[in-house]
Design a protein that fits this description.
The complex is a heterodimer of chains A (284) and B (338). Chain A is α/β, with parallel strands linked by helices and 284 residues long. Chain A has a domain of 165 residues: Rossmann fold, CATH 3.40.50.300. In chain A, strands 6-7-8-3-9-10 form a six-stranded mixed beta sheet, with helices on both faces. The longest helix of chain A is centred in the last third of the chain and has 18 residues. Chain B folds into two domains: 75 residues, no CATH class; 233 residues, MetI-like fold. Chain B contains 14 helices and no strands. The chains are: A alpha/beta (284), B mainly alpha (338). Chains A and B meet through helix 2, strand 6 and helix 4 of A and helix 6, helix 10 and helix 11 of B.
Chain lengths: 284, 338
Amino acid sequence: MSDPLTISEQALIDARGVVVAYGGQRSAFGRAKPEKRVLHGVDVVIGRGQTVGIVGESGSGKTTLGRALLGLVPVADGSIRFDRHEIVGLKEDALRPLRKRMQMIFQDPMSSLNPRHDIRHILIAPLLLHGLARDRREAEVQVRAVLDRVGLPASALERYPHELSGGQRQRVGIARAVVLAPDFVLADEIVSGLDVSTQAQVLQLLGELKRDMNLSMAFISHDLSVVRAVCDRVYVLSGGRVVEQGACEQVFASPHHDYTKVLIDAIPLPVIDPQWLGRGQRST
Amino acid sequence: MRVIAAVLAKRIGMAIVTLFGVAVVVFLLLRVAPGDPVAMMIGAGASAADVAELRARYGLDQPLLVQFGIWLAGVLRGDFGVSISLHRDVLELLSERLPATLELATAACAVAVGLGGAIAIAGTLVRGRKAEAAVDGVNGLMLAVPDFVWALAFVLVLGVLWPVLPLSGRMDPSVGVPFVSHFYLIESLLRGRFAIAGDIVAHMVMPVLALALPLAAVIVRILKEALSEAMMQDYVLVARVKGFSESRLVIGEALRNAVGPTLALTGVQFTFLIGGTVIVERIFAYPGIGAMAIDAVINRDLPLIQGLVLVFGALFILVNLAVDLGAVALNPRLRHGG
């Protein structure tokens, strides 16, 4: 469990030496923009049914890493295997059959739901595209079941994204991701825009779905208390490199890297710790 | 629907005020501008008495305010007066000529939207590649060349060097068709006279393209920019995660969100396009209100100019109203009054 190599046989996602760089390609006039590396050779292994936390401050490359795992950004070097299929260098068309197996939930459900489409369209279109439903009626049945599963009334189908509350929208985002019955879901800062009680509900829902559907998840967050609550393993990213990784409890209990300690110290205390004055001195 | 009704009511009220303003301004400007309609009508050797009599017949000897009052009262009754140069009822002239211009301008607008939309979508699909630079280059050329230069270029190439298209008019003059309306193209299509419709379309190709190309270029500029903006939104990434193809991302996801500014701009540009018909109709001797406007100005045909300007004004207002209603209908957030 603690060594990623021993579980790589049953790993769903096995990424090795992933390098992502922006810029660098030649423009139309042959002028090359300088290349900026965002990830400098990152290894990530995610087992089946496992939830992995990816933490780091903004600019650490955690969102880029997540998108690379889904084949959404061009990878300059390294290898990413999804269920033993190499996805680095695959054309979009070749990647499409895998698409339904890897889904994503976004930080901002308002911007990730097309404002011109009602919820029914948003949920049904991918089912029809991937042939998971034979016709609209069958898709409608599945979509209603998923809505019910995430705790939304069927009447939400008629609504447009702007007519829902933030928590409802995030539930639609989750419903959209799991309606395809994926193997892997990437959750990118999905609760940071929600208030604390809604956060707890959404996290609980995700936990149930993960258990019921045997989902593998990557949970990207800058909020370590959230990661601690949901993840089995955690990767700590800083400046595009993994500076620490391990089982969640182990990393939180005895962080090795200074950067991890700083992040852990940034967690607001859930209860008042009588020793809180001495805590900062102990860890810095 | 309630929102649309409210928009309509407000706009109709504003339209009446605007048209009244247009009427006042054009009436005053024409009276202040140099040039005497009576001098244009009458021979050089006419006596002062003849001039005075003609002046009195057209009411031009009355004070300005009285002239305006007489004209406005007439307009409200549907009487736009009699053309000084053509000696015919202005309303009758307008109703003969306006359909020709409407067919021309609508066709040009449709071509511009179709062509501009296609180029913008194609350019978005190849973005980041060398083909995008080619698309932008062609578009820059379309944008830089004005409609009347396109018209002259088409005349030279398709009318003279390689004469495949008729150079002037609305249809072959040897074809006698008892049309009941002045919408020749629509009527010939409705009556199944496709040979005649084909002839009318052949006459329209060059003027339509000349009017459409600059408008298409503006549409490409705005739509392509809005599309590339929309393509960076999270919901497009979501759609990519869903496994949608690139063309479905552009057309199914981004386009409806990107089309708002283009629609508004097309409305504004459509009014410029109606203005463009003045010169383009002249070049192709196309019998619309644009060509008639030039003759009316040259002849100082005051009632006809006034009638024409009112029609142009009404068209501008109608087009803008249609654009606003279209925007409401397209955007669910506006539709529900939110």
